[in-house]
């Protein structure tokens, strides 16, 4: 890979959480030693169950929160080694699309005001230019200029997500972190929005870190897929690899739990039982061992290394 657009090196994030009136404050390990790279023009999918640290990792790579340890490089520059002003400038090239466009779009502003805001904040363009840019953004996401004078509540869920995407594109970003951008939408609308992401990537040369708990969504959109469990990456491989065998047992369980497109085929009994343990009490050894059907004694004692097992294929498992 040539120099990646985005690189995380051993990124960790610990939160201090209140224990209530009586208990002491405790440390919650949300992300632990995550390293990954995203090449320009690539879509890296990040998948894992709720609470495994996906959003925290997304916020870390956007430098919205500082890491407890580790580094984030964007276009080769380490973001936390830069001055605040330089970091702010680089951050314009990285934008986020949220899960719930309704709560991220100010309901009191018209679409024009919402889309114009980034240009006004950065003192870009005349009034007429800004209007043209807003119309172009709407066109890019499949809406018409007629939308400019309307308010977010006048749009359907899918259209609102198109507005959320349009706003993220206003300052011509290179990287977009999409955090569960289709989870709140009906399945039929999900496909349209995923296709829009793909079209925009081709047209505008974008790079995505695409976050979802749903492996079928991630498989649809990603070039490579990173699987996260309790704050750590457990597998990283090209999408095609996920149709083959010998994956991490957690990945295999996620695949088995993914929806089956053919209704005549009964989904197999999912082998992923129970919820993941709390990030406040991460099990020793391999964090997945209490739920792993293949766990051995070593899995209970020793953290498996995240190691390369094939071309572009990394995983952490004693049994693979
Ligand atoms: N600001 C915070 N303060 C304390 N704990 C936090 C904070 N943000 C996240 N967490 C905790 O960190 C862990 C990871 O959360 P995160 O939101 O990153 O997971 P996620 O995989 O994105 O899940 P979800 O899809 O449910 O948001 C969770 O246990 C969460 O409660």
TrEMBL record:
Molecular functions per Gene Ontology: ATP binding; ATP hydrolysis activity
EC main group: hydrolase
Protein keywords: ATP-binding, Hydrolase, Nucleotide-binding, Transport
CDD domains (UniProt xref): ABC_NikE_OppD_transporters
Entry-linked Pfam families: ABC_tran, oligo_HPY
Domain ABC transporter: 6-255
Keyword Cytoplasm: no
E.C. no: 3.6.3.24
Location of region: Disordered: 257-280
Superkingdom in the source lineage: Bacteria
Gene3D superfamilies in the record: P-loop containing nucleotide triphosphate hydrolases
Record GO biological process: peptide transport; transmembrane transport
Record's protein name: Oligopeptide/dipeptide ABC transporter, ATPase subunit
Source organism of the structure: Desulfobacca acetoxidans (strain ATCC 700848 / DSM 11109 / ASRB2)
